[in-house]
Amino acid sequence: MQPLRDFRQSVIYQIYPKSFQDSGGDGLGDLPGVVARLDYLAALGVDYLWLTPFFVSPQRDGGYDVADYRAVDPRFGTMADVEALIAGARERGMGVMLDMVFNHTSTEHEWFKRALAGEQAYQDRYIFRAGTPEQPPTNWQSKFGGPAWAWSPEVGKWYLHLFDVTQADLNWDNPAVRRELHDVVRFWLERGVAGFRFDVVNLISKPEVLEDDLQGDGRRFYTDGPRVHDYLRELSRETGLAQAVTVGEMSSTTVEHCILYTQPQRGELNMVFNFHHLKVDYAGGDKWTLMPPDFLELKRILFGWQQAMSDAGGWMATFWGNHDQPRPVSRFGSDDPQHRTAAAKMLATAGLLLRGTPYIFQGEELGLPNARFGSIHDYRDVESHNAYTLMRERGLSDAQALDVLAARSRDQARTPMRWTPEGGFSTAEPWLADPHAGASGLSVQEQLADPDSVLQHYRALIALHHQPLFAYGEIEPLLLNHPQLFAYRRHLEGKSALVVCNFSAEPVTVPLTVSPGGTLLLGNLPGTAPQQGEDLILRPYEAVVYRLA
């Protein structure tokens, strides 16, 4: 059995089980389907498999509304299937990471049901506040739109839900809550789980006094809250998490806090996700108001975080997409069939060789683009339906609102994985329509047979990241003010490499100040690399990696 790689040298692949592979012919992906594709994942070269939640859930928010942390939802399989997945992955040198949603539970969770039934001990596990049905305790807003408070007539109080109304926030100040969640982590570690991703974990600590936010939606009071670092250290200390790989999803966080979350001596988490770089195309900071990405701002944010985390000994998760984000090639590259393959490879090159642990979301290795659904009724995501309603109320037409959803909906990432030209996901109608049905070149089968495919480029990049220079080396950002080029060097023990990527549809001459003068390690387009002393001219969406002399 192969040992698992150090998390810094690893590449992590995110699986959205509902859309990965259906083994039962019901149109829903499941755990046996993941097991059936383990050889593919091992051949890709990834080291850990992060699965989004497959626990018992009413699926109001795609499984992020958990009703039982220790039970497998029958629609995904059984505990035996989880054990087979863990064992099968381990036999192939891969570890399984689970997604823990510890900021909130589903209102279908036994704890919340007992709270509504009047048991004070269970009400104390959530954030209930007294009041009248007409006046919420604060003016805080839900991240899914609308008030962050819901009135419970059963108990005559309001409860806090920072997300959907069916996702009630837990009270982490209650030691009983923390002990229960520690037990959940230990439960899965004992079954061989190799790591955890903790959903919006920087929101778990709320202030003692809750007050109106006269400057915003309330997030400044609970983001990176007053006791969050204490609670994460306790979680790690009490469960043995130090032996696992851990990543925290950090909502609206700061680099200063993320340094603290990930400095090894503090004993909190191995690495963090932050999303600042994925807001550079939000007009006025609004996700649902479109604008082209601000490329210079993208570089400023990415490289600013890279340097700050590196200087302080912190560690980042690097990524372009996930189950909550639209497809990267459509967002930061090009949907034009002439350029899409090159752009997908270019984005992979830019991202996978940064300092940090790269995450690949299923389908990114195929360069899957966004696609327009024909109607709001084709969407399944609760956030998208809420946003559509709000956009129509603001005066947008149906077509305009659908244009926005085509660029922003979380369902863009959740479409079925494409295994064959026909689809290959299920023998039944998928739970979410496949808008790429009939498209050529977008399946695993086709790309495995094509040496110049996006998939083959990902395999080469993953092998590069496994090299110590790219896994552990320091980063030196370059050309911060260049309007088209994304460039940096990596350095380790006298060795160095140069990465230069053209984010535009026009040829670009690379300034002589970063002239490679080395050996081409990898390019994303066919052709002869320039010789030393010649100008380096990158074609549209071209990316090159040089080992420097």
From TrEMBL:
InterPro entries: GH, GH13_cat_dom, Glyco_hydro_b, O16G_dom_2, SusG-like_C
Domain of life: Bacteria
UniProt keyword rRNA-binding present: no
Keyword field: Glycosidase, Hydrolase
Keyword Chaperone in annotation: no
Ranges for domain Glycosyl hydrolase family 13 catalytic: 14-414
PANTHER family to which the protein is assigned, alphabetical: ALPHA-AMYLASE FAMILY MEMBER (PTHR10357), TREHALOSE-6-PHOSPHATE HYDROLASE (PTHR10357:SF217)
Family to which this protein belongs: Belongs to the glycosyl hydrolase 13 family.
The name this protein goes by in its record: Alpha,alpha-phosphotrehalase
Organism: Deinococcus piscis
Upper taxonomic lineage: Bacteria, Thermotogati, Deinococcota, Deinococci, Deinococcales
